[in-house]
Amino acid sequence: MADAPGTKRMAWVDAAKAFALVGILLNHVVEEVAPGPWFTNPGGGWPDFGTRLGRIWPEDFDSFFLSFGQFLGWLGDSGPGVFILLSGFGLAWSALGSDGLLSYPRFLRRRVARIYPFYIAAHFVVLGLALAFPLPDLHFGRKQVLFSLLGLRFTDGGFFFLNPSWWFVWTLLQLYLVFPLLFRAQRRLGPWTFLAATVALTMVFRGMGWAGIRFSDSLYFWMTGIFAGTRLAEFTAGMVIAQVLGARMVTMGLPPPRHVFGLAVLVYLLGFGASITIPGTLVSNFLISLGLTGIFYGLWEGGMKRLPGAASFIWIGTQSYGIYLLHQPPLHWVAP
Fold it and tell me: Is the pLDDT of residue 196 over 90?
């Protein structure tokens, strides 16, 4: 009999984080030296459909290998969605392991204690290193810096301030605030009704972005997560996976990686195709994040876990939060 939910850390989760982090790192390297794609999160300056379709494969380099690396970097832009999904999974998995009892104050204290110390330390590191580079007006007395320290990135000027990657912390904080309510709704509605409702709600929020009903002037920021409702379905998908997987593992263990991988590839391709159309962007992030997580699960459980160096790869996943917080400023500073 397998372990009950919440009683054991599963290696495939850390492996999926490592895969996603590698994709994010490659994406940010590519973004420093070449243009980005016309898929994933849309912006207000989207060109016509023909231009978007013709830009799926990059043509900025004469070398196929450089173009292929650029394309992989573009695909890596979807990595944060995997982290959002796995955040929902991890929180729900832990809650299920405690018999579903969830104290709202205790939950928030634990989340704050987990996310803020390293996040605040990262500010000291980045601002300290910034002294060696021509980055004026960066100091702890500046209002935007103080808001950033608190994780409050709800304005267009603050969302990517200091370190663009830190938008993710603000999005997570919003999702943490509503997780206990979501968890109760999931138990009341059942996993599939809950997922359908949150996917529909996410589509409404993303549609509001296209309609201009948003507090951000930037459609790109809105779709990326300045309002976390646009990423809600990815988070709740992780919660549902935790509930379904927890029920299965009590008697059957993990699902066959080959089956998961095949279905995940199909879901990912549907999401990728949807991401280059305006209506498709209402669901593309949800499908892509779900598909990528399944692909990473299939790769790890299907054989990668038995390869030499697998433990080192898992270590990258366990340290992914710290690496994510600190990786982008050095890339940006050395790129010129």
Answer: yes
For the question of whether the overall pTM of this predicted structure is more than 0.85, the answer is yes
Q: Are 316 and 323 in contact (CB under 8 A)?
A: yes
With CA atoms as reference, report the closest residue to 71 among 26, 21, 18, 22: 26
Distance CA 233, CA 22 (A): 23
Environment class of 213 (CB within 10 Å of its CB; exposed 0-12, middle 13-18, buried 19+)? exposed
Say how many C-beta atoms besides its own lie within 10 A of residue 154's C-beta.
Answer: 15
CA-based nearest residue to 160, from 280, 41, 35: 41
CB 275 within 8 A of CB 288: yes
For the beta carbon of residue 240, count every other beta carbon within 10 angstroms: 20
The model's pLDDT over 76-101, given as tens digits with 9 standing for 90+, comes to 999 999 999 999 999 999 988 665 56
**pLDDT for position 86:** 98
The vertex-268 CA angle with 265 and 274, nearest 5°, equals 145
Rounded Cα–Cα distance for residues 37 and 39 (Å)? 6
Residue 307 token pair:
């390869």
Rg (CA), the chain: 20
Amino acid at 131: L
- DSSP class of residue 216 equals -
Q: 112-150 pLDDT, tens per residue?
A: 999 999 999 998 888 877 666 655 566 666 788 889 999
Distance CA 40, CA 288 (A): 9
Q: What is the dihedral sign for C-alpha 133, 137, 140, 144?
A: negative
How far, CA to CA in Å, does 273 sit from each of 265, 266, 280, 299, 308? Answer: 12, 11, 8, 22, 35
